[in-house]
Specification:
82% of the residues lie in helices and 0% in strands. With 174 residues, it is mainly alpha-helical. Helix 3 runs antiparallel to helix 4, helix 5 packs antiparallel against helix 6 and helix 6 packs antiparallel against helix 7. The longest helix has 41 residues.
Length: 174
Amino acid sequence: MKTRHLSLCLVVSAIAFCVQGCSLLATRSYILLDAAKKKLEQGDFAGAIRDYSQAIELERGDGALYHLRGLAREIHGDFEGSLQDFDRAAELRPWDDAVFRNSVNARLALLDVLQHLAPDNLVGDPVLFRMQIVTTRILLIRDLDGLIKIDPKDAWAHGERGRRGLNWAMHRGR
């Protein structure tokens, strides 16, 4: 009986310690989020990205953190990094239309940058450059499809598909 009582005390103590530890992690995460928000408002995008990265280290399964860091990276001009974050956020939050909408905007910006670069001025292989454009367009279709799946009546998503020449027939291989 004495052993059982001691075990119960240890379990209760362990749970209390764990709850306290989780609370500290959550508090640190909120502090980092607040700091990142302030840095964004001040134009310190690199600092905000660092804070979001530290918050992600604490809570890897939080898709909202990846989404926020993706927005900061996009504003900072790091389209590749922002798209990686948006992809991870979409995996963790497949119902969140804001993630897909921001991913579409970042892919559109990247596509515009790529299409305005002259392949003749590139140091690398023009074929790889064109493949990057095609890959970006395919991923753009995927993100627009994600938006349309969440809200089939999303006029903006349908409009972007049509405006960019990304119609259903092209996507389905007809």
